[in-house]
């Protein structure tokens, strides 16, 4: 299927269209929750718009552990409902986008005096399999010490007793968010970024729209709608405050940090989920050229728009990794990149960050604002379903408009269709056969496949049209033009950080190709030299902030 035109090169036309439409539903927030709601509502026939004050997935939804996982640790909190729901969702989301939600075997080492003993781990993983309805080939195995070392030789042989071996899924959270939005376009939805909500519009004390500011043109305008959903993650309470409706649960923000190392510095063979001396659990995940490790879980009360890795965060994670892998001796100088994000959890008095529930909660104000907070990346689709069910019920009660039930468990995301993950692997092989003579590696091909899926073919068409530059330069130019036409980028930062993940997973390519992409950006978006200077400075600052922790 040819991709939809979804471009800020036609922003004036998009804004004009939005101004002239009366929507059934406006979703505020372009993270994974808002994206999921957009797709759910649009696929049920509701005329739906999503507005985001920055770029899509610019908050929490590009800064998670990037796993679609069942939350094994929530069994310790006896949160069986959450484990069952998100565990079951893993397989569904994998089926919807197998190029983007990739099977990832996880090793849980059992060590002397560790958090998990053999019996508890075996029973816990079995319950996990049952609750999550894991298929036979992916069900947990308990392995002895020698088998564990064969799977991961860097584990601490002296204190290792065995391991649990089970299945999870790895993803790119920002791409998953974007593909939900792009899929919603196929059902008539609209979405716009860099559009900030300034106030709510009311009629008879009920919300009937938004007053917004276009941060690109600085123009203000009003959008009308029957209902508004606030899905702004860490900013949920700010909009509830604007609506004068902060009642019930309040948000409790916690910060999670991840560090990225060159793979040769942390050369694990496979993903490991391990405990640290303070009783917390941490992931170490190999991903192409790099290995990343995280996460921390600390209270956060500072600026929500400026969340970065601090020295204590980095030292904590480095010590944890070095403790579990004694042959490894990571230092601050080994950090290649990092990211830090906020979890918008529901506050519970007396609980530490790690003890807070990851369940979602919906709040409805007297004026009709529907706010959703909490939850996990893995559970985004069910969170969206619960939210749209409320909107649908109100549509029927107040406007006699009946909508269909949720069908997003059957809607393949853009980048597909795929029969299964085997087809994805076959596609990668064919792509490598096609591109290897031009110098592209298996890593390059895996990156294209797992980032764009079958949309890679559109990128290759653009690639073939470029005559200047080496193959790598032509390919990244093709990616940039594709994202400009079909993925609503507005700045070079959108491209390097959220459309491609290069700032985190291939930071050297950002340094190498920055001037090239700035040149393409200037030609395509027709911006002046001072704007290019600004974005060059901004990108260099981002590289510094994410890679140099002091």
Low-confidence stretches: none
Return the average pLDDT rounded to an integer. 92
> What is the terminal separation in angstroms?
47 Å
Bin the strand percentage.
Answer: 15-25%
Plain-language structure description:
With 550 residues, the protein is α+β, with helices and mostly antiparallel strands. It contains 17 helices and 18 strands. The chain has helices at residues 11-19, 32-43, 80-96, 118-132, 145-151, 173-185, 236-242, 311-324, 380-399, 421-435, 442-452, 456-465, 471-486, 492-499, 502-505, 507-525, 529-547, and strands at 22-28, 48-51, 67-68, 102-111, 141-144, 160-170, 190-192, 195-203, 206-214, 220-230, 251-262, 271-275, 281-287, 290-294, 298-299, 337-346, 360-364, 370-374. Strands 3, 4, 5, 6, 11, 12, 13, 14, 15 and 16 form a ten-stranded mixed beta sheet that branches. It is globular and about 70 Å long. The protein starts with 10 loop residues before the first helix and ends with a helix. The mean pLDDT is 92.
């Amino acid at each position: 299927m040819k991709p939809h035109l979804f471009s800020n090169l036609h922003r004036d036309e998009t804004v004009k269209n939005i101004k002239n439409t009366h929507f059934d539903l406006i979703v505020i927030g372009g993270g994974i929750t808002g994206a999921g709601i957009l797709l759910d509502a649009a696929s049920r026939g509701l005329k739906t718009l999503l507005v985001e004050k920055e770029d899509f997935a610019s908050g929490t939804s590009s800064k998670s552990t990037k796993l679609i996982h069942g939350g094994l640790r929530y069994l310790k909190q006896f949160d069986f409902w959450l484990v069952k729901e998100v565990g079951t969702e893993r397989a569904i989301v994998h089926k919807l986008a197998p190029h983007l939600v990739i099977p990832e075997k996880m090793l849980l080492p059992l060590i002397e005096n560790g958090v998990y003993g053999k019996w508890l781990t075996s029973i816990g993983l079995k319950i996990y399999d049952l609750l999550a309805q894991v298929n036979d080939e992916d069900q947990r195995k308990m392995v002895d010490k020698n088998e564990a070392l064969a799977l991961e030789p860097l584990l601490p042989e002296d204190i290792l007793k065995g391991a649990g071996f089970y299945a999870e899924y790895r993803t790119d959270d920002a791409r998953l968010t974007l593909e939900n939005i792009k899929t919603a376009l196929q059902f008539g939805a609209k979405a716009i970024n860099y559009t900030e909500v300034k106030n709510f519009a009311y009629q008879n004390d009920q919300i009937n729209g938004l007053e917004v500011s276009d941060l690109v043109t600085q123009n203000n305008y009003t959008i009308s709608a029957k209902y508004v959903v606030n899905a702004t993650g860490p900013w949920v309470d700010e909009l509830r405050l604007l609506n004068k409706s902060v009642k019930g649960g309040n948000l409790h923000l916690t910060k999670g940090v991840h560090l990225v190392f060159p793979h040769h510095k942390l050369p694990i063979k496979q993903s490991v989920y391990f405990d640290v001396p303070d009783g917390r659990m941490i992931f170490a995940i190999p991903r192409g050229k790099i290995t990343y490790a995280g996460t921390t879980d600390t209270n956060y009360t500072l600026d929500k728009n400026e969340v970065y890795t601090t020295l204590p965060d980095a030292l904590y994670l480095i010590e944890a990794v070095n403790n579990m892998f004694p042959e490894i001796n990571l230092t601050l100088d080994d950090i290649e990149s990092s990211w830090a994000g906020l979890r918008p959890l529901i506050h519970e008095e007396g609980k530490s960050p790690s003890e807070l529930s990851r369940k979602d909660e919906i709040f409805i104000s007297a004026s009709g604002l529907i706010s959703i907070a909490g939850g996990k990346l893995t559970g985004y689709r069910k969170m969206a379903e619960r939210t749209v069910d409320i909107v649908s019920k109100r549509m029927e009660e107040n406007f006699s408009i009946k909508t269909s039930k949720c069908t997003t468990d059957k809607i393949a995301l853009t980048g597909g269709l795929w029969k299964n993950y085997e087809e994805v692997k076959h596609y990668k092989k064919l792509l490598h056969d096609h591109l290897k003579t031009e110098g592209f590696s298996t890593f390059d091909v895996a990156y294209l496949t797992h980032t764009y899926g079958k949309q890679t073919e559109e990128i290759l068409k653009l690639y073939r049209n470029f005559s200047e530059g080496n193959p790598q330069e032509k390919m990244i130019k093709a990616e940039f033009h594709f994202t400009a036409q079909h993925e609503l980028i507005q700045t070079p930062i959108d491209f390097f950080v959220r459309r491609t993940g290069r700032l985190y997973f291939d930071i050297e390519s950002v340094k190498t190709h920055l001037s090239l992409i700035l040149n393409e950006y200037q030609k395509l978006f027709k911006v002046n030299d001072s704007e290019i200077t600004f974005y060059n400075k901004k990108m260099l600052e981002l590289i510094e902030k994410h890679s140099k922790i002091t």
